[in-house]
Every structure is written in C-alpha cells, then in structure tokens.
Amino acid sequence: MNGTEDRRNPYLVLGLPYGSSPREATKAFARRSKEVNKSRSFGYTVEDLTWALNQVEQATQDFEVDVTIYRVPANPSLFDGSPDWDGESSGFFNPRPVPIKRTTGPVDPEEIEALLDEAALCWVNQLVSPKGASVQIPYPFPN
Length: 143
Known about the structure:
- There is one protein chain.
- The chain has helices at about 10-15, 20-40, 45-60, 65, 110-130.
- The chain is mainly α.
- The chain has a domain at about 10-70.
- α2 packs antiparallel against α3.
- The radius of gyration is 27 Å and the shape is flat.
C-alpha cells in the first residue's frame, strides 16, 4: 500500500497516545514486538510495528507526514471517574456493570442430572455410530 491508501494509525499500532516522542515509540516498539513474538493472535506483525515506528520517527522530521494520520480523540480522564458508592471508580467510557433481574426460576438438581445424562448418551451414541464407516474415497483415487 502506498501512503494515501494506508489507513493505519501508527500511534494506535504501537499503543501510544497521539504525538508521542520517537523515544517513547521505540520503547513501545520493543514492548509490542515482544507481545507479537509471544502471541499468535496479536493482530499486528513485526512489519506493522516497524512501519509504525518509522512513521512516528518520520513525523518529527517531516511535519506534512503527520497531517495524513487520522486522530482518535483520547482523553484518558474519561476512563477515570469519581469514586462510586462502594469506593470503586468508573468513568464515562468505563461504566460499572448493572445487574439485571433473573427471569427464570431456579433449576432443580433433577433437571440438571437429566440434562447431563442426555448429553452423555448423545455423545456415546455418536462415538459408536456406524455413520463414520460409510466414508468413500473421492475420485480420482482407486477404490
């Protein structure tokens, strides 16, 4: 992708607030690259992190590069709030969970046992079922 088609935000890729210094970006690059190496489901590759680090470093040298980066409004104070009634704090974007009323009655232990018995029976039936024996090797392999 060239610079006009690329919609990634290097600060978000590195997990930094907008306008962070290249030194902070280098630290974030090191931290995030360790996370990439530890986890397969990270979402970014080392190449993405390298690109983001390069963009942040280049933005300090060439201010026109910085204009193309879309900005995500970030006000960390919106995640922090005043202490609630129990001493916990929650902010505008970090609301406390609100419990809801139960709409069903309690389940009898007999119903739970019946459900478990039925699940075990279905599982055993699938294990001993002859359905798996009718698998045919598809063409072009000989019978």
